[in-house]
TrEMBL record:
Top-level division of the source organism's lineage: Bacteria
InterPro entries reported for this sequence: Beta-lactam/transpept-like, PCN-bd_Tpept
Protein name from the UniProt record: Penicillin-binding protein transpeptidase domain-containing protein
Domain spans labelled Penicillin-binding protein transpeptidase: 11-94
Segment forming the signal sequence: none
């Protein structure tokens, strides 16, 4: 989480231009009331699939950081596993009224 806070606050040892580029690349959703910035990740290790989605939502004067990790056995087939990390996170953010709506994921 420290890295996400460092990106948001621009306190990591990077040139200021790189923060602008990175933050623009991280935009997943932008509405009149919030900006959701995030990054996915995936690894296959020890017979497990591990997927994650980390980021933050800027809403008015508030910032909400999140990190979601999902794990399954590689032998277990689940065509929706790759999408579930975003779906779970957005569902929670919606329930918490941090984001307005839940978008369909492609």
């Amino acid at each position: 989480m420290d890295a996400l806070i460092g990106i948001y606050e621009e306190t990591l040892p990077f040139h200021k231009d790189y923060f602008r580029i990175l933050k623009n690349m991280m935009i997943e959703e932008e509405t009149d009331s919030y900006i959701l910035r995030a990054k996915t990740g995936w690894t296959r290790d020890g017979g497990k699939d591990t997927g994650w989605w980390v980021g933050y939502v800027e809403q008015d004067e508030n910032v909400y950081f999140f990190a979601t990790r999902v794990i399954k056995d590689r032998e277990t087939r689940n065509a929706d596993f790759g999408k579930c990390r975003k779906k779970i996170t957005k569902s929670i953010l919606k329930q918490m009224k941090i984001i307005e709506r839940q978008f369909e994921l492609s």
